[in-house]
Specification:
Rossmann fold, 3-stranded antiparallel sheet, 22% strand
Length: 236
């Protein structure tokens, strides 16, 4: 059955948030990270700044606030992303993009863009935070999404609350691949419209060095070395 509720509200309703189970929460310029008492760690990309890291503010979570959404995303990633998901492979080893006719990328995934260029695979790329010359202007996103047969979607759309509007604009025959270290690796994410596969990141427990790197404002180039690729595939 397709899930209609946006993911963070859905997971709160289904699982709740156990505040006493949270050991620490930090936020740097680019990412935030949360550690549970058992050492499990979840991270989430920030929008444009470090977010409020005072745990006292979580007593009344408000998903209308971006800071609370990022905190909540971190929490569920800590809960889900270390639960024995399949070891990950590179996206291009799992998906044959050659047979798609119109690929849209939401989020400028530089390594994928480079591989696509080498393979001569065309894609139309949208990114709120970048202004590279090869990006397609944001006002055209809705039109391109409606015509796409494949969407590579950054999981930061979950925390910034654009996930549902984006997937709901896609045609019924579109395949959506959700990826990035902000991805909640839970099988229920595969119940959203057109979501085919999940590609995320898991971290070993009690990685204090990872927490320090996140708090220092470093990006994926610095912290992904602490993690391992993980994936959940929808083979229906």
């Amino acid at each position: 059955m397709e899930i209609k509720q946006e993911p963070l509200a859905y997971f709160i309703d289904k699982y709740g948030i156990d505040l006493p189970d949270i050991k620490s929460f930090v936020s740097g310029e680019n990412y935030s990270a949360l550690m549970l008492n058992d050492g499990s760690i979840g991270i989430c990309g920030n929008v444009d700044r470090a977010v409020e890291a005072d745990l006292e503010s979580t007593q009344n979570l408000d998903l209308a606030r971006i800071d609370d959404r990022i905190f909540t995303n971190c929490y569920f990633n800590a809960k889900f992303n270390n639960s024995g998901n399949d070891s990950g492979e590179d996206l291009l080893k799992i998906v044959d993009f050659m047979h798609y006719k119109q690929i849209v990328m939401i989020g400028n995934f530089h390594p994928i863009v480079a591989k696509f260029q080498k393979m001569e695979i065309k894609s139309d790329i949208f990114d709120l935070k970048e202004d590279s010359d090869y990006l397609t202007p944001m006002p055209q996103q809705q039109d391109y999404l409606s015509k796409a047969d494949c969407v590579i979607l950054t999981a930061t759309t979950i925390s910034n609350e654009t996930f549902l509007p984006i997937i709901n604009k896609t045609a019924a025959s579109c395949d959506i691949f959700l990826l990035g270290p902000s991805t909640p690796m839970h099988s229920d994410m595969l119940k959203y419209r057109n979501v085919k596969h999940l590609f995320g990141t898991a971290f070993d427990k009690n990685l204090e060095e990872l927490i320090k790197v996140i708090a220092a404002g470093k990006g994926p180039r610095f912290f992904l070395k602490f993690g391992k690729k993980t994936m959940l595939l929808n083979n229906d």
